[in-house]
Amino acid sequence: MASKKESTIMATVFIGLLIAYLIYVFMLHPWERVAIYAKAGELIVNVYDCDTKYPISGAQVKFYTTEGELLKEGKTDTSGLISFKSLPRCIKLKASYSGDKYAGVCLGDGEKRTVDICFNAPAANPNVLYATDYVGIIGARSGDEISSKEFSQVALSYPVESAIAKYPDYYLFSNILWNERMNLELRVNKSITDAVALSFVIKSKKGNPVTVVRLQGIELFKDYVTPGDVVTVNAPKGLINETMKLSLSCKFTGLYFWSTQDCEITNITVKQDYYLPINPEKEYEFNTTSIERESDITSIEFVSEKSSKSGLKIYVNDNLIFNIDKLNATDYKGEANTKDLNLKGHGNKLKFELTPGSNASLGSVKLSFKMKNETYESSKELYFDAPSDVLENASYFEVHAYISEVLLGGSLFLKINNATYEKEIRKAGWITVKIDKEDVKGDNTLTLSARNAKFEIQKLRVSYV
Q1: Considering 53, 95, 107, 112, which has the largest number of Cβ atoms within 10 A of its Cβ?
Q2: pTM above 0.85?
Q3: Residue 101 region, left (φ>0) first, then alpha (ψ -120 to 50), else beta?
């Protein structure tokens, strides 16, 4: 009897514990429930200085669910680290030091992962003796071409084509009171039409009538025409319209008012010369550096490989930089003030536009950026101190420099007091130059220079190891 009672008590206790556990699980955050059944992972956040990789302590790090609920916050230790265990599978984090940076990560069961976040924080490294965020341009000389951009061959085509309409022969009669007319109505595309001409032959005539040609009611031709002669009448540019009304008549002359006169007109043609815009424009897109945008002059150079009846216009961002009425087979050059071209870092437009009339072929096309008077220094001197304990305990020193633009590749020279170091530079990015301990003293002069090369240097730091 006692054993039965004990069993009942144990069952009651078990059920009570199960209910309490279920209530506990129900009250948990969803990610905490997952953590109970999944093997807990660990996320480590490593915060450091971008340049020197030195750890940043005291950076604020906050961990959030994917819905944005704050789970944990803290600061990095002296090693620049902070960790979070038993976290949800997916998490977002925010690191704050000299700004804010964000990251997101999803972990598998039991996975341990490190997320690296860097800030520009030279003060974080106690071994930095000197730091600056901008040095300047090294290696410039007066009158230098800063840089140039070359473009592929430019082929343009805007020729004149001709269309000829033929009309049947016509007889025109006239007397003292009345003149018969042949009327033609032409339809032309005024925007691309260069010329319109009427041609005909007076095959025979009775009497001696005067041949008269009118366009839009305006008399363009009036004369006695000998049979067999070809007459050509060109329409003035100002009378070329979408609709053109031509009339031809043989006007009666003489005193025999009781008689008639006539003309037999043959080979009646109307010739229209029009422009055929096959490839009248060519456009290129190009980017520019900040140094190019600060130049004084932007110039365009090219070779016209053949003569052309057409003219040429060249634009940079819709600003005219070159214009000529007729191209010859020779070299050409045009230029404009850079400040007038509205240059941007990306998406600039270089456009070639041929005027109607012919074809053109342009080679050796180059867009250059130049300085009228170079204002940048060809070298820079920087100064830093090294305490006596650093001089005694350091193994060596380092110069870290960020080359933002290589204007002309070559050697950068770093002179520390009386010792000179050379670094070959062909592309932008961070460089590190190791400096021997014996070349550094308490008061130091660091001179940066370039021979037949040009660089823009932004950040520079001197540190010891």
Answers
A1: 95
A2: no
A3: beta
